[in-house]
Structure formats: C-alpha cells, structure tokens
C-alpha cells in the first residue's frame, strides 16, 4: 500500500500526484523536540539516512519515496514524548508529506477548489483569491530560505532557473497552473510567488452563462462567429478571464479542422481531435535557445493550420498574427491586454510597430480592419465577477480612423449597489457579418441583435 493509499483516510489522497523533488535543508537543533518544525526536520534526517543524496535527485521512484516518507514520519511520531490525537497525527502526517513531496504550505491552497489564485508577497504573507475576492491566508513559510526552496522546486521541474542573474521566471505546475516568481535583488522585500490555478475541469459555454459572465443570446452570437470563421480578439485586463473565454470559444471550432495553439504557458484545453500545441521557451544559461511567441506564430504558418489560436499577443507577434489572419487563416483567435475594445486596437497598432517594420499608421490600420472582424471586451467587476461588457464589430476605415460598432454592451441597472447589477444587452445595430456567416451556412437570426 502506497502513502497515497494510506493518507486517503485523512482526506489527502492527492499526495501521490505531487512531484517529488528537493527536500528541507537542516534546521537548527535548538528547537524543542515537540515543535512541529523539529518533527519535520527529524523526518528529513531519517530520509537522508535511508536515501542519501538520492533524496535530492529524480532517481527515486515516487511510490518508493512515498513509502519512505510514510515510514519515517510514523517512526518520528511514535517516538515523541507527548501523545498526539488521531486528528493531530493525521494533520502532521499531511504537513510532512506536503513538505517533502509537495510545495509545503502552498499544498493545501492548491488542493482547495475554491481558490483561483495564490499570491505570496513574502515568506510570512500569503493572500488567496476566492470567488473573485482577495483574502489573507493564515499559512506562512518558515523563512525566506524555505520560500526560495519551494520556488526552486517549481522552476527546476520545468527546466528553468531563478537566481540573481535571472531574477524573474514564468513556469507552470504539473496540473498546468501558471506560476510567476521574482527574487532579490529586484524583489525588495524578499522573494514573491504568484500562482494562477488551472481548473481541472475546463469551463464550458453553459458555465459562463450560469456565472452570468455572458448571456445565452450573446454566447450564441459568438459561437456563430467562430463557426463562421470570423477572426476574433478577446480584450481585457489582468485576471479578467480572457483565457477562459478563449478556451470556451475555441470549443466551437469544428472537429474536422486542424488547430495550432501558441502560448507562453500552456493553459488552453481543447477537446478537438486535431490539435497541435506549441509553447514558448526561455533562453538557457548561455542565453541560447530562446523561442518567442513570434517565432511560434511564424512557424505555425508552415504547419498547414486551419485555425491559429494564440494565447496572448504582447509584442511584434501582433504583425505576424494579422498577416496570418489576412492570408487564408480565417477564424483565428487571440487575446490582448486592454481596457476597452478601442484601446485593444491601439495596443495592436503599438505592438505591430514593435516588430521593427517601418510601416505607416494607415497601412497598419488597414491590416487591422481587413484581419479582425470582432473584438470582445471582458472586465473584472468591483464585486470580483468577470463579465463580457462589449461585443464590437470592425466595419472599415474612414480616413485614418478604424470604424467600429457595438453589437452588445453591458448596461448597469443599479449603479449604487456594492454588487454588479446589470446585463449584456444588444444595442439594436445589425452586424455587417451576417451575409458572410450565411455564405458558410451559419444562420443567425436578426432577433439576436434587436433591443
């Protein structure tokens, strides 16, 4: 019986899924024996005595390591002078397991399905986001060194590093959760760690409607736009839910199409059978091997895609994305950081200029109007909820101004309440893309756009 099996009686059956990696270093011997940290240290000593330096490598099979952790913890707990209740013993067993096999105090937060983000400001200050609101957590790391070991464990598992010469790093956990870490000297108050958790069960269009992120009518319109191969950009601020919406909209792509996804950290989870996933790579210790979003977008054009889905454009890759949309890859999807649909177009202009091409502004705007059909704006409201606040269509260029018309707009029904009371409603404007959808046998009634 493995440790995961034994711990299932204490609501810790997921211990087996945690990656085994480097363990605790030595803690001072002047801690009283009945101190919890000393118990963990004694367990660590037992493991070193059994495994030696294998404990710090990947040579030990996870099940074998789990068994050794269970046996060592049991031995130490049996040896302490004061008796432990069954609950205290189970809790201590779980904490030691999290420390040796997992991410220490972060492990219970990662197990909590109601927590969407974990923010470690410093070793003794952890905040979590639950239901769109931020709360302090009573859990802490023992010290700065403890936090740094946890960060090293995370980044080393994906072949990355973080130190004084490279003090920032993006990585992801085994379940796909996105991780960002910064360490001194750029982090003035000590190392900082942010984890955006990856949902085990991908959201569906029904989930977004149930959470009031979007209305059913507006979702039907966006689904028709995807099926009708319109190029779409999802705009929004950090944490507004852009990637979730992108994943849901991607689910409407027909199963018989070849999809290439391009991401900084793989988060998209498409259910279609013909999907190729590409992910960027940072440079190595010799500053070689860097692969950017722009490199992957260029390469994806040689992979015979029907659709290209880019997790986010934030640099010169915007030019390559526009060219892909303009050269037969209709129905492509991407996201961009911006506060409004109009700002999204301005950001795309700026990012195209970052590509190093000396293009006049009018030429860039012509590219945008020919490439992008629909811009979806998503916002994080004051109560923590995520809402689609605008769906806009790009209709053309007048002089040097891109012409847009809002098809749906979020209207507040009560501006004085603490919560968000309102609804995404049609503006009454009929879109110009209805004929294009009809040419692809996608029917969308005019009723969807009437007030």
UniProtKB/TrEMBL annotation:
InterPro entries: P-loop_NTPase, T2SS/T4SS_dom, T4SS_GSP_E_ATPase. Coiled coil: none annotated. One of its GO terms (molecular function) is ATP hydrolysis activity. Residues 301-315 form the Bacterial type II secretion system protein E domain. Pfam families: T2SSE. Belongs to the GSP E family. This is Unannotated protein. It comes from freshwater metagenome.
